[in-house]
Design brief:
heterotetramer, A mainly alpha (about 290), B alpha+beta (about 220), C alpha+beta (about 280), D alpha/beta (about 850), C: about 280 residues, alpha+beta, Alpha-Beta Plaits, 4-stranded mixed beta sheet, two-stranded antiparallel ribbon, about 25% helix, D: about 850 residues, alpha/beta, Dimethylsulfoxide Reductase, domain 2, Rossmann fold, 4 domains, 6-stranded mixed beta sheet, 5-stranded parallel beta sheet, 25 helices, 29 strands
Chain lengths: ~290, ~220, ~280, ~850
């Protein structure tokens, strides 16, 4: 007989669809992008700031779609605003996302239309300040579940989410701003990309080899390997393509793909750690 | 002021969604309290984390067992011969629930999975309510009014009885019977039904009357 | 009144004990009610499964033969709120042995992960200390599903909300006991005030320990990772044999630290962005 | 049980099991099939009782028992014999009980020869008639009917029943029994010792059985085995004792009491026989008894005839006795099926029963249904017995063709229990009324409605035209008040007729009020009292919590509301309780009457020392210390001189189909068993025959908790169907290996009757047996499936053979032979080819 009860899962894997890792990606990107936009605006690099606030807006739009579409009853999305629940990272997250995306949309709208510039700048600043929280809160959200692969990396998962967000935001800048303007984005991409590799290493270490199998085996493992390949090549391109728009764009595209793939890798690892009861049993043995 | 704080899309469904038996009867206090945006109820202080009463919906507050106020009809489980007591709950001429009768000294209110499924047995989607007729050598079912079916069956009984009547055996002993008709069934039926069946069959001379007791 | 005294958990989660949550009903608060499922009395008839579905008008979960002993229900799900597990443990000579049967159900935890994480307030603690999903509120976000250490909650395929045992909240309100406990032919499922059930469970364990090898109580300890269950179990083998987690912990237990770590990560991210933006000049 | 104690019903009631010190469940899977009744076994177990489950399989009952003993299907008589051997050899019988309450001391005729002397036959065997004559089984010097027989109260006389029994069971040693049953000798000793240790003055033991005892060619004799044990140990008529028959349908006891059975009239009055009974007087003389309760046969039959023919039944016309049809042999359902196949039976009513999947050899039944002129099926949904003409497996295989089936089919919707008033008689003889909650929908009606209106129509038609022998119909009383728009007959009025009334038309209060002069009418004498005081006693529902554990005010039990019958035996011969612990009914000297927790099953004021005068009649002939009032001698019968066709004592025979030879006698199977050799009902050869090895495995069928019988009331219910969705076979890992069966995959199972397929459940709970040094594998099949419903599957009953117990005409389903192979079964035209090959292999072509 298989482990546990006929090898059946002890905890249930998520009922979520792939919209959720997509949301993690888009939301993370949006958060870091808004912060970069704010920083660039402050540094008077309006061109990159413009690209980044649009990036944040695009990320918010995708996020909003994913969040609502993934609900089994999307028409009841507004029920999210019924209560404020500090015990629920999703409830907290909904308010973070609402404040953040509201600010981003106002800022981006003002940027496009030129209307109410000062208000636009103000909300851009707000968005920039909330941005990092937007990028990272999803790590709390998934950490606050019983999926061992998400629950156990208490220290490293937020770091991974932060690094991935930084990389994706930087990649966005590489992709949509010219080589002349995208220096900050390039640096962010390089810092983020490198951090991702390091944090992943730390994550495996934090949860130990038995639990790390959730990340290294099966579909999650394949995705993680692809993500690493994409990221490393993206980093190389980003480092080499300082003066080339084309190479920058390739770097941006590779790193965006890498970030997205990494999100899926993490997501699948969580699912895998629920589907096979050995992870739960192993985790609760050591507890 | 309170009205503007009612979040339309949030509570509309809750307000509409009555469950059978509650008939939308709502106490004023509940209404005003539960119609309030839960966030404000949270802020009211009793349940700041919205883990209890503050998050309760109007429907939940009104939600009550559908058997509440239903007529209780005493019955006995139709499956095996343990003879568990059943309470049949009826509202508006519809059975809303069947469960164990705690008064029964045999079953003490308990039921097995079959007994627990009695209502699903009665309400099964596979149950049919019209007579179906298949003519000799027919390839499909036909509709047949109940009255007509009863008439036809009575005719068949008498015809077969006439044709297969056995007055005496070869040795001249009295038989007084109709050997062309047989019957099967009874162990799932009521005593009264078995009694009328046996009485009628015996009068008709039908002796081949049997039920599950032997099966 | 049920006042279990769980070990304090950090941060604001301190406030979330079943008793505190029930107390939000003020004068309407009732004794905390729950189940004691004594597997030494279970005959595996599945009356609980059927009685539950009949009362709660839940559809079948499909007609699939599993070959897993007599268990074709497989697990608790959105539409199956009682599930009887079957485990065959025959002795080597096979004249005798054990056939473990256990009716599983929502644990109505003292620290309920599903309740904590529900973003809409669809899940509430009731005045009876039980945990109930309000299906008129639930928007199917699915967070509760992954926050339950027991894998209890699932999606109801027809109305797309999440489903689990309500401990027959509607019946409790009119003074009736839950449908499963009422149907159970052998009193394997007992319903009552949780504190009393805990005492009963302790006594029962003492009685059966000599007779049944490996007998143990499950979720009777208010100091365990979920603050003890509103549903207690007397098992004859390790919890995992029945598909139960051996050492369940409410995921929100270390939520404050998670926020703290996330705060550091966010600050680092902010710093990194600013640094990247500034380092050009 | 009727033959041992006098009445065919369970001797006790389910709640009484809580008082048992030891419960042996054998031939029953009580936890699975009677879960709610099983609470009383659990109750006893928790109070410290030993619960033993003797069964071929380790089931949910075994799991809840304190001990499980695996024995080979069909070896029950040997196992019970081993227990009797142990009791007698170690002198563990409850002597005072045996000497006073049983026929143990009675001397038998000198010319009686036991099966031990005649190698499996008793004296009186007639090979030409395949049956026994019973003269030699009689008591010594009983030529004058009714005189008390010679006895030896010391139980030492070699001709006394006790000594005969001792010799009869001398060879049933633990070792021999274990070899036959495929179990360990120690198991036999353990069970016997548990029973002995838990019997006597202070303690009592109970037996529970169901159809795994009755559905054998030796079914009645198996129950006899338990009866002998319980009489020897003094467990009948006492709290916590008895034999509880667990029946499988809501009113199966009721449909025997008020029989939809060919051989009896209501209240176990025999159907008149063509040869024996010319008139009422002859009938009463030959079927009644001089002594015991059957001494009042005249009162019972006359009251029945008055209930049926009313004013037209007069003393002058023998109360219309001549109008009753006569039987002259077996007319049981299997005989009727043969009649349908042969074309002698043309019309068939199938009411709440589903022979097309539910009866043994259901394929033969479907062929029979396809050869009728007309068929009426009444059920909740379109069951297989109504749909066979287009979806039977024989249509698929091309053996039957829809266009060539002449049967005219009327399918009619029936009302469910909550849609009609009426009473069920449960397994403990308790009549419980169920009230109508709602009107049935559409054209659905109760069967009471159907038969009432059918009868009304027939009576009208008879009045209008010439019919042969129309008097019984014309004279038949058929006046029941009609209710409502649908003109439903009043069920209470029918119950009142069953109860009966006196000369003034008042409801009778018990059967002692019945008269033979035609002044009383009573539809079923044993039910007399169920409408006492013009009150529907069966609808009484005083909560159990508000009365004693016996709960006498909940519903109504026959006879006369007694819950434990023969309860006079719960007191010693002097009328005092055997012990304080087992107090139940006793003689109150002050009030000069029997009293206690239950209605005494005895003449209330008959003193314990009452000695009948010579020539006393009926119940007056029963002495004050004789508890078995239905018996002519008032005694429990260890040895049965009358009323059983296949022997006065149980003998171990192999099942009709068995892979092993009878280890005790050269007679392989019950010589009296009833057989129907014909095409499609061939028998698998057994070892003494040639090719006895073609079907090497034991096959047995059974039920699961989650379904009901052939599934007509459970395969339509989603909440039940999902719990056991597919037909499966249970096999041991050893058999799986031998035949290459894969768990969860498919297997094909076949006998000489049919081939079917099922999912494979390989389980350690099934253990191969060592029988006589040979390994014996078994295939277990739950028989709930058919071609219709939410979940479908092949019908296990297709595999069975129709061979019957000679007493009860019940088929053998619990021990046959079969073979099993891996993979799915042949389909379509390949089925007949496959079956022909099987028949050829077992050389069955010539069997007809």
């Amino acid at each position: 007989m298989s482990e546990g009860y006929y090898g059946r899962p002890i905890v249930k894997p998520p009922t979520w669809t792939d919209l959720i890792p997509t949301y993690f990606f888009a939301g993370g990107l949006a958060g870091a992008a808004a912060t970069l936009a704010f920083a660039e605006r402050t540094a008077r690099n309006d061109r990159l700031a413009r690209a980044m606030i649009f990036g944040a807006a695009a990320g918010c739009a995708v996020s909003a779609f994913c969040l609502i579409a993934d609900l089994k009853k999307p028409e009841r999305f507004m029920n999210m605003l019924r209560v404020v629940k500090p015990t629920s990272p999703m409830s907290v997250g909904v308010y973070i996302f609402s404040a953040f995306s509201g600010s981003v949309f106002i800022a981006a709208g003002s940027e496009i239309t030129g209307v109410a510039r000062s208000a636009g700048r103000f909300f851009e600043a707000i968005a920039g300040l909330i941005g990092p929280v937007m990028s990272v809160y999803t790590a709390v959200l998934v950490g606050d579940t019983v999926m061992p692969a998400w629950h156990l990396p208490r220290k490293t998962l937020p770091g991974l989410f932060a690094a991935t967000s930084a990389t994706s935001a930087g990649a966005w800048g590489l992709l949509f701003a010219s080589a002349r303007d995208n220096g900050s984005a390039r640096r962010l991409a390089l810092v983020g990309g490198t951090a991702m590799v390091a944090v992943l290493q730390a994550l495996h270490h934090e949860i130990g080899p038995a639990q790390a199998q959730a990340y290294s085996k099966g579909e999650a493992g394949a995705l993680a390997r692809s993500a690493r390949l994409l990221n490393v090549s993206g980093i190389v391109c980003a480092a080499l393509g300082k003066d080339s728009n084309a190479i920058s764009r390739i770097a941006g595209a590779l790193l965006l793909a890498g970030g997205l793939t990494e999100r899926f890798a993490v997501y699948r690892a969580g699912c895998a750690s629920a589907k096979d009861p050995k992870y739960v049993l192993e985790a609760q043995k050591s507890n | 002021m309170v009205k503007t704080l009612c979040l339309g899309p949030l509570t509309d469904e809750a307000l509409r969604g009555g469950i059978p038996g509650t008939n939308g009867a709502r106490v004023g206090k509940t209404m005003s309290e539960h119609a309030l945006w839960p966030v404000l109820r949270q802020a009211g202080g009793k349940d700041p984390l919205a883990l209890g009463s503050a998050a309760q919906s109007l429907r939940t507050a009104d939600w009550k067992a559908r058997t509440d106020g239903a007529k209780v009809v005493k019955s006995i489980c139709p499956y095996c011969a343990v003879g568990c007591g059943q309470n049949v709950y009826v509202k508006d001429d519809t059975i809303v629930q069947i469960e164990g009768d705690p008064d029964s000294p045999i079953s003490r209110g308990r039921l097995c999975p079959k007994g627990s499924a009695s209502l699903s047995l009665i309400e099964s989607l596979l149950r049919e309510y019209r007579v179906k007729y298949r003519r000799p050598y027919g390839t499909h079912w036909e509709e047949l009014p109940l009255e007509r079916a009863m008439e036809m069956i009575a005719d068949r009984v008498l015809k077969t009885r006439r044709e297969t009547w056995e007055a005496k055996d070869d040795e001249g002993n009295t038989l007084n019977r109709c050997y062309g008709i047989a019957h099967l069934g009874g162990a799932t039926l009521d005593n009264e039904e078995n009694y009328l069946m046996k009485k009628l069959y015996t009068a008709l001379g039908v002796v081949q009357v049997e039920n599950q007791a032997r099966l | 009144m049920s006042r279990a005294c769980p070990e304090p958990v950090e941060g604001f989660i301190d406030l979330t004990s079943a008793a505190a949550e029930s107390a939000t009903y003020g004068a309407e608060e009732r004794d905390r009610m729950g189940f004691f499922t004594d597997t030494t009395l279970c005959i595996g008839c599945k009356a609980c499964e059927v009685a539950c579905k009949e009362w709660n008008q839940l559809p079948s979960d499909g007609y699939e033969f599993t070959g897993e002993s007599y268990d074709n229900t497989k697990e608790l799900s959105g539409n199956t709120w009682r599930h009887v597990a079957f485990v065959e443990q025959m002795e080597p000579e096979r004249d005798t042995g054990r056939w473990l049967m256990e009716s599983d159900v929502c644990k109505h935890c003292t620290h309920a992960g599903c309740l904590d994480v529900c973003p809409t307030g669809a899940i509430i603690r009731t005045e009876f200390g039980t945990v109930v999903i309000q299906d008129d509120i639930c928007n199917g976000c699915g967070y509760c599903v992954v926050a339950c250490p027991f894998g209890v909650i699932g999606e109801k395929q027809e109305d797309h909300t999440m489903g689990k045992c309500t401990l027959c909240y509607d019946r409790l309100k009119v003074g009736e006991q839950p449908a499963c406990a009422k149907a159970c032919p052998t009193e394997s499922i007992q319903y009552g005030v949780v504190d009393e059930l805990r005492e009963r469970a302790e006594k029962r364990l003492e009685k059966v320990q000599q007779k049944f090898d490996g007998a143990q109580l499950y979720l009777n300890d208010p100091n365990d990772g979920v603050g003890g269950g509103g549903s207690l179990f007397l098992l004859l083998d390790k919890p995992q044999v029945y598909g139960l987690p051996p050492n369940p912990i409410v995921p929100t237990k270390d939520l404050p630290q998670r926020w703290r770590t996330a705060g550091i990560a966010a600050a680092a991210l902010f710093g990194a962005v600013v640094l990247c933006a500034v380092s050009r000049r | 049980m009727g033959t041992s104690f006098g009445r065919g019903g369970a001797t006790t009631f389910q709640q009484d099991l809580q008082n048992s010190d030891c419960i042996v469940i054998m031939g029953s899977n009580m936890a699975e099939n009677h879960p709610v009744g099983f609470q009383w076994v659990m109750e006893a177990r928790e109070r410290g009782a030993t619960v033993i489950h003797v069964d071929p399989r380790f089931t949910r009952t075994s799991a809840a028992a304190t001990k499980h003993v695996p024995i080979r299907a069909g070896s029950d008589i040997a196992f019970l014999g081993g227990i009797i051997h142990y009791i007698l050899k170690n002198d563990r019988a409850f002597k005072e009980y045996v000497v006073n309450y049983t026929n143990g001391p009675v001397l038998l005729r000198d010319d009686f020869k036991d099966s031990e002397e005649l190698d499996g036959f008793f004296s009186g065997w007639h090979a030409d008639k395949n049956g026994y004559t019973h003269e030699t089984w009689q008591y010594k010097d009983m030529d004058t009917h009714g005189e008390p027989p010679d006895t030896d109260k010391t139980l030492q006389d070699p001709r006394c029943v006790y000594q005969v029994l001792k010799r009869h069971y001398a060879r049933y040693t633990p070792e021999t029994v274990a070899r036959i049953c495929g179990t360990e000798p120690q198991h036999v000793i353990d069970v016997a010792e548990a029973l002995c240790a838990n019997s006597g003055r202070e303690r009592t033991s109970a037996f529970c059985y169901s159809v795994a005892w009755t559905q054998h060619t030796t079914g009645v004799q198996t129950i006899r085995g338990a009866a002998i044990i319980q009489l020897l140990l003094g467990n009948i008529g006492r709290p916590g004792g008895g034999i509880l028959a667990l029946r499988g349908h809501a009113s199966i006891q009721g449909s025997t009491d008020i029989p939809t059975l060919f051989n009896i009239l209501p209240g176990y009055i025999p159907m008149p026989h063509a040869h024996a009974h010319d008139d009422l007087k002859d009938f009463i003389e030959s079927e009644g008894a001089k002594t015991g309760s059957w001494g009042n046969m005249d009162k019972y039959i006359v009251s029945l005839l008055k209930a049926w023919f009313g004013e037209r039944a007069t003393e002058q016309n023998d109360f219309c006795f001549d109008l009753l049809p006569r039987i002259n042999g077996d007319h049981s359902s299997y005989r009727s099926i043969m009649g349908m196949l042969d074309g002698t039976v043309k019309g068939f009513f199938c009411i709440g029963e589903n022979p097309a999947v539910g009866s043994a050899n259901s394929g033969l039944h479907r062929r029979a249904l396809a050869n009728l002129e007309w068929l009426v099926v009444r059920d909740f949904s379109e069951i297989e017995s109504a749909s066979f003409w287009y979806d039977a497996p024989e249509i698929e295989s091309g053996e039957l063709h829809t266009e060539s089936i002449p049967t005219e089919v009327f399918w009619m919707p029936a009302a469910a229990h909550a849609e009609k008033d009426g009473s069920f008689t449960n397994t403990q003889r308790l009549l419980q009324w169920h009230h109508q909650a709602v009107e049935p929908k559409g054209e659905a009606h109760s069967d009471l409605w159907f038969y009432y209106h059918l009868g009304k129509r027939i009576k009208e038609k008879i009045a209008a035209q010439e019919e042969p022998f129309s008097d019984p119909i014309a004279f038949l009383t058929w006046n029941y008040p009609e209710k409502g728009e649908t003109a439903d007959p009043d069920a209470q009025a029918v119950l009142r007729e069953i109860n009966g009334w006196d000369a003034n038309g008042r409801a009778l209060s018990d059967y002692n009020g019945l008269k033979a002069d035609g002044s009383t009418a009573c539809g079923c004498w044993i039910y007399c009292g169920c409408f006492k005081d013009e009150v529907n006693q069966t609808a009484r529902r005083k909560p159990g919590s508000e009365q004693s554990w016996v709960a006498p005010e909940w519903a109504w039990a026959w006879p006369a509301n007694r819950r434990i019958i023969y309860n006079r035996a719960s007191a010693d011969p002097q009328g005092k309780p055997w012990s304080e612990r087992k107090k139940y009914v006793w003689w109150d000297e002050e009030k000069a009457e029997w009293t206690g927790h239950d209605v005494p099953d005895f003449n209330k004021t008959k003193r314990p020392d009452y000695t009948p005068e010579a020539g006393a009649k009926a119940e007056d002939a029963i002495a004050g210390w004789q508890p078995f009032v239905m018996q002519e001698d008032g005694l429990g019968w260890l040895f049965v001189p009358n009323g059983i066709v296949d022997g006065p004592l149980p003998v171990f025979y192999e099942p009709h189909e068995s892979p092993v030879k009878n280890a005790l006698y050269s007679q392989q199977a019950n010589p009296c068993r009833q057989q129907f050799p014909r095409t499609f009902n061939e028998s698998n050869p057994s070892p003494s025959d040639a090719h006895g090895d073609v079907f090497p495995f034991v096959l047995h069928t059974y039920r699961l908790t989650e379904h009901h019988t052939a599934g007509g009331m459970s395969r339509t219910v989603p909440h039940l169907s999902e719990l056991q969705p597919e037909f499966f076979c249970e096999v041991s890992p050893e058999l799986a290996q031998l035949r290459g069966l894969t768990h969860g995959d498919w297997a094909t199972i076949f006998t000489s009757r049919a081939v079917i397929e099922a999912r494979v459940m390989v389980t350690d709970r099934v253990k191969p047996m060592r029988v006589d040094g040979k390994t014996l594998h078994s295939v277990g099949l739950p028989y709930h499936w058919g071609s219709r419903g939410l979940v479908t599957g092949d019908s296990a009953n297709d595999l069975l053979n129709i061979t019957l117990d000679p007493n009860a005409h019940i088929q053998e389903t619990k021990g046959l032979t079969c073979d099993i192979i891996s993979g799915r079964r042949p389909r379509g035209k390949d089925v007949p080819d496959f079956m022909n090959a099987v028949r050829t292999r077992s050389h069955l072509e010539g069997q007809e």
